[in-house]
Design brief:
The complex is a heterotrimer of chains A (124), B (196) and C (308). With 124 residues, chain A is mainly α. Chain A is built from five helices and two strands. In chain A, helix 2 crosses helix 3. The longest helix of chain A has 25 residues. The two termini of chain A are 21 Å apart. In chain B, helix 1 packs across helix 5. The model of chain B has no long low-confidence stretch (mean pLDDT 79). In chain C, helix 4 packs antiparallel against helix 5. The longest helix of chain C is centred in the C-terminal third of the chain and has 20 residues. The C terminus of chain C is likely disordered. The chains are: A mainly alpha (124), B mainly alpha (196), C alpha/beta (308). Chains in contact: A-C, B-C. Chains A and C meet through helix 2 and helix 3 of A and helix 6 of C.
């Protein structure tokens, strides 16, 4: 899986890793029962400390998205379809809240925002 | 382990500081041959060998080898003993050369060297080397070459003075004129040390 | 002895190491197996002394060092599981790079000549060169190759990045990361470049003036400390809570504080996150002004703090 990090972001690295893996699981990019990349291997590839990845993985385990098969690695858990839908819906809610806040700060009207969304939608 | 270290040590010395091995041996022959006292080459060899021990430590310092030894599988005691043996090996070579020079020179000069005296010389040589090493090694291991270096002059100085005094007081058999031996010995040592 | 069963590769207790006028003291730290621990501090803080004591090159005046569960020094099996990279390569200047394996291989129980050669090739160090003909970057990589070739479990590095260009620094970091993919491996490195720590270290030991100012996970460091900045007047009753307090010429002050002490500073102050650099610098400044005031005979009066 391809994780891309932003070093200058206010979001801590482990949080970014967690989010990207979570999205990949919810989006179906990593199958149930598949192994997450080796913790240490991922740390070496992403050029971050081992503890950073450990923290991300442990958080994912706490969320129920993965489990630690000692000695063999971290495995993606059976995903609850309803939970995925809920998580994705929450993600949208979060994005909308941020969008609205940004629009208000820029003193834009809701129509301007909606237009921007439509333009962006057609682009992808 | 000790053997492994000694082998490494001697090979290292021979290949990285060959001049420091050859020159002192050459001096053994040179000075040994020039001093007219039979058996002198042997004692001179012992003196020179005592000084060259320090070069092993200089090598260590130049290559930071004490760190290498610390992280290797050779234990510290084995390093110390192995180094002692390396020094003894060189001493044996030097004294052996001294003995050969003695044989040659006594023949060339038509001198005679009685066996007891020859034996006495060898014992003295052995004594000199053992004492010098026993004193120097802990000193160098503790301080390293640079800080321990001035120390070299001490045993050399003592031995030269002892030789001189022994000659003056007639402590040794009067048939051997060791009176003048103190001076050449001191000269040899100072030259050897300053050379390097 | 299975290293993976031992949770701390190194345990240092009560260590006292005197070097002339300087002393490393009250050192109680652990280096956990499977992680990278960085030792950071200003020059003269004692980083090199600590590493030398770990190697057995300096005998401690007091205290114990436990290496892989065995008392150190004294355990040969443990001793040879250490790989070292110091500021100068541990090889004689005259040696040819290619001959190193042949020379020192016998001194190790597990020298892998093929691995050594492979590393030389990968690091692009010509085997025909003499050791004294190598550039700084090549020397460090050679040290690393020599350290890795006998398959150590613990890699000790003393300021390995000093004198390296950014490319070489990146290479060094990558090699360390590769080494860490094996969970039985441990790295301890010292540096005064705090950005290196942020990228590489899991745990950190902040040394200052011979004492441990902080030891723990890197994240903990950032959680435990904060920076406070404010305009005058400075709340004098909060002075004991400050570390490395400094005043600008304008009277604005800045100090490192523990997070739990933020309440002691009023609403007109700014609380900022403390970077690793902030921690190191402020502890160093604190020690320095303590030394100055001890010299001048008494606690530092306001205005004696360092002014910019």
């Amino acid at each position: 899986m391809q994780i891309v990090l932003l070093s200058s972001s206010a979001v801590p690295i482990y949080e970014q890793i967690k989010t990207q893996i979570r999205d990949a699981i919810h989006g179906g990019d990593i199958a149930e029962g598949a192994f997450l990349p080796s913790l240490r291997q991922l740390a070496a590839e992403l050029r971050v400390s081992i503890i950073t990845v450990t923290r991300a993985y442990n958080d994912l385990v706490a969320e129920g998205l993965a489990r630690n098969e000692h000695g063999r690695g971290f495995v993606v858990c059976t995903v609850d379809a309803a939970a995925i839908r809920r998580a994705l819906s929450e993600r949208i809610d979060r994005a909308v809240a941020e969008l609205v806040a940004a629009g208000r700060a820029a003193r834009m009207e809701s129509d301007d925002i909606i237009r921007k969304v439509e333009i962006e939608w057609t682009r992808h | 382990m000790i053997a492994t270290f000694t082998l490494f040590d001697v090979r290292n010395f021979a290949t990285t500081q060959p001049l420091r091995m050859i020159l002192p041996l050459a001096l053994v022959v040179l000075f040994g041959a020039s001093v007219p006292i039979p058996g002198a080459p042997i004692v001179i060899a012992a003196l020179i060998a005592s000084i060259t021990t320090s070069y092993y430590f200089q090598g260590d310092e130049r290559g930071m080898l004490d760190t290498l030894y610390a992280a290797s599988s050779i234990s510290r005691p084995a390093v110390v003993i192995g180094r002692y043996i390396s020094a003894l090996i060189f001493a044996a070579a030097a004294v052996g050369l001294g003995a050969a020079t003695t044989v040659v020179m006594t023949a060339v000069r038509h001198q005679s060297l009685s066996w007891p005296l020859a034996l006495g010389m060898l014992v003295a040589a052995f004594g000199i080397v053992s004492v010098a090493l026993a004193v120097q090694l802990p000193w160098f291991f503790a301080l390293g070459f640079t800080r321990g270096r001035p120390m070299i002059y001490i045993p050399v100085g003592i031995l030269s003075i002892a030789g001189f005094v022994a000659g003056q007081t007639g402590f040794l058999d009067g048939s051997i004129q060791i009176t003048s031996s103190g001076v050449p010995l001191a000269l040899v040592s100072i030259l050897t040390v300053t050379f390097c | 002895m299975d290293a993976t069963l031992i949770s701390d590769a190194v345990i240092i207790q009560n260590l006292l190491v005197k070097r002339g006028a300087f002393a490393l003291r009250d050192i109680d730290v652990r280096v956990p197996t499977g992680f990278v621990t960085g030792v950071v501090g200003p020059n003269g803080a004692g980083k090199t002394s600590l590493i030398k004591a770990l190697l057995g090159l300096i005998a401690p005046d007091e205290g114990t060092i436990t290496l892989f569960g065995a008392e150190h020094p004294g355990n040969r099996a443990a001793q040879q599981r250490i790989g070292v990279v110091l500021d100068r390569v541990t090889a004689m200047p005259e040696w040819h790079v290619g001959s190193i394996g042949r020379r020192i291989g016998p001194l190790y129980a597990e020298w892998d000549e093929e691995l050594f050669r492979g590393l030389l090739e990968r690091f692009e160090i010509p085997a025909d060169n003499r050791v004294d003909a190598l550039s700084r970057g090549q020397s460090v990589k050679l040290s690393l190759a020599m350290a890795l070739a006998h398959r150590p479990q613990l890699l000790l590095l003393d300021e390995p990045s000093s004198g390296l260009d950014p490319v070489a620094r990146r290479d060094l970091a990558d090699i360390i990361r590769e080494f860490m993919v094996d969970p039985s491996h441990t790295v301890l490195f010292s540096t005064h470049i705090t950005s290196e720590l942020d990228e590489l270290a899991d745990h950190i030991i902040v040394l200052n003036d011979g004492l441990v100012a902080f030891a723990g996970m890197l994240d903990e460091l950032h959680e435990r400390f904060a920076i406070v900045r404010g305009r005058p007047p400075f709340p004098d009753e909060a002075r004991p809570a400050t570390i490395g307090l400094r005043f600008e010429s304008s009277g604005v002050y800045e100090a490192l504080i523990r997070t739990e002490d933020t309440a002691r500073f009023g609403p007109d102050t700014v609380i900022d996150a403390a970077s690793t650099d902030d921690v190191v610098v402020h502890f160093a400044e604190h020690a320095r002004s303590a030394r100055h005031s001890a010299r001048d005979g008494g606690p530092a009066a306001p205005g004696k703090e360092s002014n910019r």
